[in-house]
Amino acid sequence: MTAHLGQALTVSRLSAGYGETDILHTLDLEVPPGKITVIVGANASGKSTLLRTMSRLLKPNRGHVLLDGKSIHQMPTRDLARKVGLLPQSPIAPEGIPVDDLVRRGRHPHRSLFSSWTRQDEAAVESALTATRTLDLAERPVDELSGGQRQRVWIAMALAQETNILLLDEPTTFLDINHQVEILDLLVDLNRARGTTVVMVLHDLNLGARYADHLVALANGQIHIAGTPEQVLTEETVRAVFGVPSCILTDPTSGRPMMMPIGRHRMLDGIDAAEGSAQ
Amino acid sequence: MTQSVSVSVLEIGRIARGRRRRLTLAVLVTLVAFLFALTLTVGQSVTPISDVVRVLLGERVEGASFLVGTLRLPRALLSLLAGLSFGLGGVVFQIMLRNPLASPDIIGITSGASAAAVFAIVVLSVSGPVVSVMAVVAGLAVALLVYVLAARNGVAGTRLVLVGIGIAAMLHSAIAFVLSTASAWNLQEAMRWMTGSVNGAQLADVAPSLLALILFGGLLFSQHRELDVLRLGDDTAAALGVNNARTRITVVLGAVGMIATATAVAGPIAFVSFLSGPIAARIVGNGGSLLIPSALVGAVLTLAGDYAGQFLLPGRYPVGVVTGALGAPYLLYLIVRVNRSGRSL
Questions:
Q1: DSSP 3-state of A269
Q2: Does residue B129 have a pLDDT over 90?
Q3: B5: exposed, middle or buried (C-beta count within 10 Å: 0-12, 13-18, 19+)?
Q4: Are B231 and A81 within 8 A, CB to CB?
């Protein structure tokens, strides 16, 4: 796994947002190379803003996002696209486009105006389709696929880009639970087989804790806590980040921590929301 | 083993698609060539093909030289060039803004070029390249104006279209005003600047359009891969290494340049920009690049529209009236549909 030693993504004293208003406030983050980092947080905590700035969709107001010590906001767009891939929240598939044609577009940063399609391009596309188990869908129009299949195709496109770092903005939103697990398992496969550094924003805290090597909890545009799921997913964190009292259990299937929120109703005797929510 | 089989299946699919695409383009080119030849040979009277060819080769042919060389050829050439320009310039706007309504003839850019051209010709009494340059400048100015008025935390599609429609309406009344104050007011001229017409085309009109098509067309084709990727959304395009800002500026420059130059000669031929992209998307059907197909569809619409307006309909109409009659129902359909789903090209 020496391949990604020189592919360190770091965020340094970053303030960013839309227009003048900062959503992120002097935030520092080190992404462990070759690992899966999951960013969680409440709505408006800045998790999407962080991912968008890390992928250069958003310019920082202050601070830097560094790849191997160089600011990504000063690198040529195409160079960055060969090193960092991104799956945005709502990509658009042109009507009628077949799966393999969409995945082929992932080769864009590797091609120039007049270069023709090479063996290497074809091999990258084929390997991306195989890795995401979409090879038998290759001829089908993307708009006829199920939500889970479609998401696998988009991941295949990002894989065809052949980057060592892959960023994903809520890749499991709008998917049924079976497809959520399928997509997250797929990302673990890729991380293990290719050594790809994965950074993703997830809405579901429990799935995040299950799949993360490195869990980052955001609150109010700052990192509340980051570390292993065991270090991060605590009653204190859930209260600070989501403003809800909770009970932390051990997920009997994965051995990772999981969280059950405590509400006002449907609670057993002795479990009291008021006690928890007295902040 | 299964691996190598699937590789070839994947490759076969790609090759088959390439073949289908070349076939589609060949059919479109043939259609354009047929309509071009039809315009040269069959009008009120039929000129034998042999005579047409001799005229094209520069020979003097009794009865055919004037009819073909002076009347029909400039008309056919101008229809062809304007059609290609409107088709190509239209679709790149629709792709870039990911909205079929955001075509230059709907959002006022063509009207701006037309207003500048009619002002230059009727009020300033200039002609030739100066008119083209003024049209291009006005087209760019309108593009900038629409952009500035519509921009608010990024350009939202619907607001841009509405602002553009408003500006187009203003420019239309400006055109009508200039025409009504002109001493040399006549119906032919009025029709040209209101809906577009290739009546009275001259060979001298063709040169600037050809030059603009080559120059600005080259600019657009330098961005054809970027445009293909932009169809996946701005974020995806940026993630794939497209410099969105640079692509936008290049595309606006190229598209406005070619459309405005064509408008300076043929007027704002109604709805050709607007219709070509969606028709081409239907024909291509599989998300393949739309630039060349749309240009060809634009040429088909313009040549066929002009021919129908001259010879197939009761009475004679300029091309813009015919294409306008085709485009208006589609516009209505889109406005109704876009409110429900946000899909575009």
A1: coil
A2: no
A3: exposed
A4: no
3-class state of residue B253 by DSSP: helix
- Say if residue B1's pLDDT is above 60: no
> Hey, which residues 14-53 in chain B have their CB within 8 Å of chain A?
14, 17
Which residue of chain A comes nearest to B219, CA vs CA? Answer: A113
Indicate the DSSP class of residue A3: T
Which of B232, B243, B286, B341 is the mutation pick for testing A, counting most A CBs within 10 A?
A: B232
Is B13 in CB contact (< 8 Å) with chain A? yes
HSE-up of A253 (CA within 13 Å, CB side)?
7
CA distance B97 to chain A (A): 13
Residue among A82, A100, A105 minimizing CB distance to B232: A105
CB atoms under 10 Å from CB of A76, counted, come to 10
User: In this structure, what are the phi and psi dihedrals at residue B58, rounded to the nearest 5 degrees?
Assistant: 95, 5
Residues B235, A122: C-beta atoms closer than 8 Å: no
Interface contact B231-A92, CB threshold 8 A: yes
pLDDT score for B8 = 65
CA-CA distance, B14 to A100, in Å (whole number)? Answer: 8
Tokens, residue A79: 């160079």
Sequential pLDDT tens for chain A (279 residues)? 444 445 789 999 999 998 888 999 999 999 999 999 999 999 889 999 999 999 999 999 999 999 999 999 999 999 999 999 999 988 999 988 999 999 999 999 999 878 888 999 999 999 999 999 999 999 999 999 999 999 999 999 999 999 999 999 999 988 999 999 999 999 999 999 999 999 999 999 999 999 999 999 999 999 999 999 999 999 999 999 999 999 999 999 999 999 999 998 888 888 876 555 433
Q: Residue B181: is it exposed, middle or buried by C-beta count within 10 angstroms (0-12/13-18/19+)?
A: exposed
Among A73, A84, A90, A101, the strongest candidate for a mutation testing the B interface, having the largest count of B CBs within 10 A, is A101
> CA-to-CA distance for A64 and A56, rounded, in angstroms?
11
Look at the alpha carbons of B85, B257, B21, B322 in this order and tell me if their dihedral is positive or negative. Answer: negative
Distance separating alpha carbons of residues A231 and A226, to the nearest angstrom: 8
Neighbours of B63 (CB within 10 A): 10
Q: Chain A contact for B239, CB < 8 A?
A: yes
Structure-block tokens of residue B21: 């695409």
Which chain A residues have a beta carbon less than 8 Å from that of B152?
none
Indicate the burial class of B73 (C-beta count within 10 angstroms; 0-12, 13-18, 19 or more).
buried
Interchain pair B241, A108: CB under 8 A: yes
Q: Do B232 and A56 touch (CB under 8 A)?
A: no
Of the candidates A57, A126, A158, the beta carbon closest to that of B7 is on A126
The whole-angstrom separation of Cα B253 and Cα B256 is: 5
Query: What pLDDT digit, counting tens, does each position of B52-68 carry?
Result: 999 998 888 888 889 99
The partner residues of A87 in beta bridges, in order of sequence, read: A168
- From A127's Cα to the closest Cα of chain B, the distance in A is 10
State the Cα–Cα distance between residues A49 and A51, nearest whole angstrom: 5
* pLDDT(B188) > 80: no
- Does B316 lie at the interface with A, CB-CB under 8 angstroms? no
Ordered alpha helix ranges (H), A105-227: 119-131, 147-160, 177-194, 205-211
Contact B286 A96 (CB under 8 A): yes
B239–A101 CB contact, under 8 Å? no
